[in-house]
Fold these 2 entries.
Entry 1:
Amino acid sequence: MPNAPLSVALIQHRDAGSVDANLDATAAAVAEAAANGARLVVLAELHTGPYFCQTEDLATFDRAEAIPGPSCERLGAMARDNGVVLVGSLFERRAPGLYHNTAVVFETDGRPVGTYRKMHIPDDPGYYEKYYFTPGDTGFVPIDTSVGRLGVLVCWDQWYPEAARIMALSGAELLIYPTAIGWDPQDTPEEQARQQDAWMTVQRGHAVANNLPVIACNRTGHEPDPSGHAPGANFWGTSFVAGPQGEILARAGEAQPEILTVELDRGRTEAVRRQWPFLRDRRIDAYGPILQRYIDPT
């Protein structure tokens, strides 16, 4: 990646009620971000509709679409019309009965230049993703673009240092996480604060451990449980960008859609790695046990 500064915009998203309405809102936000100088624009997870994984419903699979497909066409046009590299997030129908949670990267001419299929799939109350998504098979491979090598991961991947490390070892220059995470409205304020703090802390740790900027773009707003059996989810926004020492460079608010823009100093990774050469000092000869699920006591 060249050392010239890079202007990045995160589009913190609130569901607008339909695919067309969401894409219209996205198009307006991308245009505004580009007009303000952004060259890389990152969208939140599954931004063309509601976060549908609160319940398990066969009819929801009808939301999925092929890649490339109609939403890719619109996202590609946004990238082309505004001269930006764009990172989107879609519910992919790969084949009958085979679906993925997939990030797609578009170049400034509108071409899709790479995809990443979410590798870590949660299955928790309100986040029943294993029902919908097959674990990804693209591996942790950075995507080359005109603004650099992008280490694109998705949401639940945020909690796994192994994913960030492999992206860094593969030459990623930025770590990017489209995200949909929020609170259970029934949680206490203390528990909500712990969860949000943990989410930011672990990603700042990825930035520190790999000396890379981290971009996390989240949803915002309340989305009801379609089944009516639970109080829904309050997506906590707080999209942020951290620098290569974990420093917070920009942070959005919690409750509103927002375009968060930050200028990245692309020479800082090199400078920080000269001072803190973590990659040099890795003991790769001693890390074999990391490939085990758990190391049982002997």
Entry 2:
Amino acid sequence: MHNRGKLLGFVVLLGLGLALLIGTAGTIGTGNVGIRQTLGIISQDEVTPGVYLKWPLISTVREFTAKEVVIDLQDLTPKAKDNLSLRDMDISIYYKADQGQIAELQSKYSGQSQYDGETKQWLPAFGLLHRVVRNAAYEEVAKVDSLVMHTRRDAIAGAIRDNVQAELEKNDPKVFQVTRVVIRSVATDPSIEESIRNAVANQKKLEAMTIQTEIAKKESEIRVTEAEGISRANKIIADSLTREYLQHEANQALLKFAEKGNTNTVVVPANMSVAPLLNIPSKQ
């Protein structure tokens, strides 16, 4: 019985020893860094990727990602420039933190990092970015009228990105990089959506009327061109009809008239200055 107790004690001690031994080492994945905390004090030297050692029980190492992180903001309801609130707005923002300054971020913004249970990694200053992005979204949406919000999504996303980057640079220059912002959806109030549909319909109607006006204008220009052509032709003809030419044509007509053997009557213009040729048939 006594020996069995010793054996059990040995197994327990061996298990504790193995646990302590395992607790003295760990690994950091590529693209990440480790933040060491000993007795509550955060070391400012990041643990680089690979195997690391630490003091068991009194020291911990958390793995932080230095890769691109996405923050999804759901169900935002910012007010537009015309003081009308959006029904729903969803935004995704992508950012990276400089891996050489993540330890300083952890010390400066204690409690702002978030643990990702899926990747088993910590996301640096996640809470800080979430707050800054939300504020920037409300600020930029307030600069645009709700009726044109759906046509300005890319511009608003770019403005949010610039706003967030500028705000982060104020307190932490060259620490964060906002890589992109995506506005996944924008849903306005139903009354606004009806106004948008009416505005689009009116715009299409205006475009159709503009095309019809251009067609009518072109047709009118064609008719004017044709009329100008006819007018010029008539003027050329009128300018060519001199008195002498008209007299010549009249003489030619009278000559043909007189050559017909059965002609008895000829109508002579009153202002004719040349006697016409007459063919008076002889009496039988």
